[in-house]
Amino acid sequence: MNNKVSLGKMKWKLFLLGLIKIPIIGYIKPKLIQIDDDEISIKIKLRKRTKNHLNSMYFGALAVGADIAGGLHAFYFSEASGKKISFAFKGMEASFLKRAESDIVFKSSDGKIVKEAVNNSFERKKRINENIKVYAFNKHNEIVAEFTMIISIKVLN
To answer: Which of 106, 107, 108, 96 is nearest to 56 (CA)?
Structure first.
């Protein structure tokens, strides 16, 4: 993993992902706030597109935020290493602790786990599964949801 990947490049990749591959990402319009080797932060605004009938963030929008915060690191390390990857989620466990009644920031500090999964897949030539944690925070910096995501990574080249 030699190359440094800029925040701007990853923002562009997220935009293209939502435009071309996964339209619901484009519809929800998440914003990449920060990404580095250790951490990622994604913000989803509470608005008509993301609200439910209780004026809190809809479960689907929360799942999209966790998906991106859990998965974008894989693309970040793929870009940094110059290796193509096949990436998917094998499972997800969610705990909703309070209503998400404001903009929500999704954070994961498991970048090292994702990086190791990419490296192990390349070395072993097989798919690697790992658990990572994603937390959702409201505007008061309170945790409103916790997610355990099972990522599945295979390096293709």
So the answer is: 96
Our CA angle for 145, 148, 150, nearest 5°, is: 150
Half-sphere exposure of 9 (CA within 13 A, CB side): 12
pLDDT for res 157: 73
In the chain, what are the domains? 7-155 (3.10.129.10)
**Radius of gyration of the chain from Cα atoms?**
15
Span 101-136, pLDDT tens digits = 999 999 999 999 999 999 999 999 999 999 999 999
